[in-house]
Amino acid sequence: MSADLIGLWAGAVLTLLVFSYLLGDTPLFRLAQAIFVGVAGGYAVTVAVYLILVPRLVTPLVSDPTGNSLLFIPLALGLALLLKLRTAWAPFGNIAIAFLFGVGSALAIGGALSGALLPQIRATILPFTPSLGWEVLVDNALLVIGTIGAFLSFRFATGAERPTLRALDVLGRGWSLLGRWFILGAFGAIFAGTAVSRVSILIGRVYYLLHDWLQVVR
Amino acid sequence: MLYCSQCGTQNREGSKFCNNCGARLKPASGAICPMCGTANQVETVFCTNCGARLVPLTAEPDSEKPASAHPIKGLSLPTKIPPSPAHAEQETPSPASAVPEEPAHDETQTLRDAPPPSESREESGSGQDVTTEGETEIPDWLRNLRSSMPVEETSRPSPVSETGPVQAGGEGEDQVPDWLARLRAEPPAEEEPAARQVSEDAPDWIKQLQAQEQVPVPPRHEEDVPDWLRQLHAEASSEMTLGGEEQASGAPSGPAAETGLEQDTEEPESREPFPREIKSDAEITIPSWIEHAAGIDTEEPAPAEGSELPVWLDQSSLESPVQPSPVQDEPPVPAPIDQLGEEVEPPKTEDQAALPSWLLPSTPEETPPETPTWIEQVPALPAAEEPAPVPATDGEIPDWIKELQAREPAEAPAETIPEIQGAETESLIQSLEQDAGAEIPLVPAEAAGLEKPLEEEIPDWLRLAMPAERAAEISAEAEAPEEKIEAARPEEVPAWIAALRPKDEVALTPAELAGEPSEEVGPLAGLRGVLPLAVAVAEPHVQTKAAAQPQAPAGVHLFDSILAAPAGEAELPAAKGRRALAIRPFIYLLLTLAVIVPLLLPFSLARSMLPIRRTPAEGFYELLQGLPSSSTVLVAFDYDASMAGEMDLQANAIVRDLIRRRIKIIAVSTLELGPQIAQRILDTAAAGVPNYRYGSDFVNAGYLAGHEAGLSQLATSGLSANSVDFVQKQKLGSLPITANIKSMRNVALVVELAGSEDSLKMWMEQVQPRGGAHIAAGVSAGVEPKAQAYYDAKQIDAVLSGLVGAAQYEILSNQPGLAVTSVDAQSAAHVVLVLIIVLGNIAYWVSRARGSETARASRGKAT
Fold first, then answer.
1. What CA–CA distances, in Å, run from B830 to B430, B836, B841?
2. What sign results for the dihedral spanned by CA atoms B789, B795, B799, B802?
3. Do B723 and A55 make contact, defined as CB atoms within 8 angstroms?
4. Best CA proximity match to B604, nearest among B415, B346, B822
């Protein structure tokens, strides 16, 4: 029996075990869940060791320590992370944790500004020239109105007392209500896409069982 | 503060019993008064209760120093050992020669008669034994007084004519304090009106008692005798008279009857009526209790009435056998003189001792609290030693004597009753009864309206001398002090607190008052409902349980019926749950059939109806078609096994098209499981393509660690030279396809296959802004809304979404595969899902309408 056949049967059995969840939280489902978690974790460690640590840290330090002396810094930080396993030595591991969180936070904040916030704001500044055609105008208008309405839906201020501001307050309330509907539409689209995605996954699993394992489907 | 050793309750300073449990409080440290048993603070010289000296005087070892030079620090009782009865009989003079012949003998006379320690031994002759024995028992301060007295006697024959014995005392003048000299030097005219005023302020019962005196006092003596002494004398005689009436009626009462005191028949001389003694000038100056004390010294111990004798008198009766006669040359100071200050000190009740001074009821009879006890003792000597300076003494009475005079009627009986015991005391009291000229029954303190003596403060030595029955009674009373306190405290509430009583308290019925909690501690003890909190907390008369009202709304009855309904009716949720369980497999079955049937029986309906043109998939396809041959495309497999069923279709379609066009592929992944998926897709796609080799045409660069940091490094520095590929584990820098990738500008396109939003977001935030890279995103259907936003913002060049996008790409690339096969199943599943959603909403609205009708009907029934 080849490894492919074992893998095929293992995959089929584990798929059926996962489907047993339709009958409830059965031990079979829990068994398959534990197997997936264990295999995924072990595989991740193996990949990290053989693709990251060994070729990018250990091998350069062994082959040319002097030329790769800067690699001692990540080595020390990596070893400091292991000190987190012991409570008395945990403060030494906080240095590596702080380094990781600091670098990650800085990159995330900078990337959010440059890769999400500013481009998305710029994308809502759309032209309203008649030459674009009514379809584009309506599309741009809906986009602007929906974006501003979504922002106004998170406005929780009370009503204004001055008559001049009262009209704006009424307008803001109406616009925020419209923006709320835009948000609901976005949530509906995400939910529908998720449902479609899960149906595709179901199809893939059923196809695996019918095609690969049972071979009833060509 | 004092803390109870039994319950730990915090009590006020000076309290003798715990406010909580009633246990006797013992100070942590302090001196116990040998006279009254009061616990005093450490280093206290005099007892705070009775004024007795707590610190014994030390004898002066230096004989050269004059004995009179010792300062008088106060009067303390000499601790005298009672001599044997035989010795006492030998030394005790006969009462006939003592009391009648020397009725004017008083404390000061005794002191005057007492010689100095050195001289008395030389001058005393026959009385050497007594003197010697007395010397050993008399403290030093008393010797000092003795040494000064003869000098005064010789130099100042008449106290009226002289400014004072101290001034004429020569050597003794230096020994007497100034205040004493001033007291003696005061003009007599100032005291007379004060004394009369005090006499007029005497209580009514005293006046009545004075009126009941059968023997009138001669006018000559009336004028000579100070009013306060007269009052004291009359008071003593009247008390005896009142008691005698009861005793004459044959109804024994009071402690005297209890102790079985009998009249003394051995000394008929001592039974002379009291008024006869008043005829003497010297006798007039002597209060009755001093006469009693003198009788102890001179007479053979006579039966005494407990109700008339203070505590100190009881002790003096014990010491009387050793006291020399007043007629002797060297009479020792009788015990009453030592205890004079104690007698004038008002005994404190338990509550008075427990309460602070400001809370004590102020009466005109009280001595100002600033006056120490020893001051009251010492000045009493000159006032008493004046034999009969008739007209002058009235005017010379100082204020403290007035206060003493005013306090005597109320205090003297209070210290008397039960402590007297023994045959000596009985005989003493019998003699006093006979001196009063009438049968003197005992008058209980309670009957006279006086305070009961503080028996709990009786020292142990005195309690041991009591009869067993009386000691047991005192102990029993001491064990239950709370009742006394509760009974006494309401009387001690100050007026300002009593004014705080709620006005409507009078409207409360006794039953309501019984329900109200009363204050147990503090100055409000005994009051009910004074504090609002007590009323609010207790409120026993308020009904807390609401009674059912007949006019209650229907909702109340409905709620009561629901509560009263048995628990078996709550089956509706379970039925709903079973119904849901019955529907759920039906939904599963429909979805399974919708997926399996199209796979088994492909009808190609969806393929024919699938839109291709002017779709995002077409843009994606055109973007890849615009890539030149031999260009390098970086394909990121950022999805794991859970999304492989959907994302593999896109990956297969894209990779097959790229390989078919000989476009070089570098596969990376930001997930640990991504390289394995990528390798499987690449191997499958490259299997049928000739001369498309691993390492030169395509490579699996493996796992890209570091998430944002790894992508940022990839965008700026390209692939790390030290990284190895996933298959051959060769350094990427050594591979021809990856050796020249220094940034994303070196790749023609980045195809991001994102199974989750986070992966796409990282690429958009870390790689795309750093410029140079064109990104095409093949995403899951759930990530499409997010990817569409990036596409609209022109952050990515093309979007391929889900299985449908894969099928479109296969159709566009003319490589129909699994995606096209799965489209029918996907479409069938979508139809089933739409039907389920529609039917579910219809069922919801119908059930809602039925629910509203049911609720409306139930409301109609209720109304």
1. 126, 10, 16
2. negative
3. yes
4. B822
| Segment 140-169 of chain A within 8 Å of chain B by CB | 143
Quote helix, strand, coil % in chain A, to nearest 5: 85, 0, 15
Spatial contact of B263 and B423, defined as CB atoms under 8 Å apart: no
Question: Which pTM was predicted?
Answer: 0.50
Tell me how far apart the alpha carbons of residues B760 and A107 are, in angstroms, rounded to a whole number.
15
Beta carbons within 8 Å of B863's beta carbon, 6+ residues apart: B554
B524 vs chain A: nearest CA distance in angstroms?
Answer: 54
Q: How many CB atoms neighbour CB B710 within 10 A?
A: 18
Chain B nearest C-alpha distance from A200 (Å): 5
A41 at the B interface (CB within 8 A)?
A: no
CB atoms within 10 A of CB B838: 10
- For residue B10, the cross-strand partners are B3
Strands of the sheet with B664-669, listed across from one edge: B698-703, B664-669, B632-638, B749-754, B775-779, B798-801
**Tell me, what amino acid is at B471?**
A
**CA neighbor of B300 nearest in space, from B209, B419, B431:** B431
Q: By the 8 A CB rule, do B508 and B529 touch?
A: yes
Distance between CA atoms of B601 and B599, rounded to whole angstroms? 6
Query: How far, in whole angstroms, is CA B510 from its chain's centroid?
Result: 33
CB burial of A96-133 (b: ≥16 within 10 Å; e: otherwise) equals beeeeeeeeeebbeebeebbbeebeeebeebeeeeeee
The token pair that represents B66 in the structure block: 């004059």
Query: ∠ CA B175-B179-B182 to the nearest 5 degrees?
Result: 105
Any idea of the CA torsion for B640, B641, B647, B651, to the nearest 10 degrees?
80
Per-residue DSSP letters for B794-833? TSSSEEEEHHHHHHHHHHHTT---HHHHHHHHHHHHHHHH
Mean pLDDT of chain B: 65
Q: For B293-340, how does the pLDDT look when each residue is reduced to its tens digit (9 = 90+)?
A: 444 444 444 444 444 444 454 444 444 444 444 444 444 444 444 444
Q: Using CA atoms, how far apart are residues B671 and B329, in angstroms rounded to an integer?
A: 124
Q: Above 0.85 for ipTM, yes or no?
A: yes
The backbone torsions φ and ψ at residue A67, rounded to the nearest 5 degrees and listed phi first, read: -75, -25
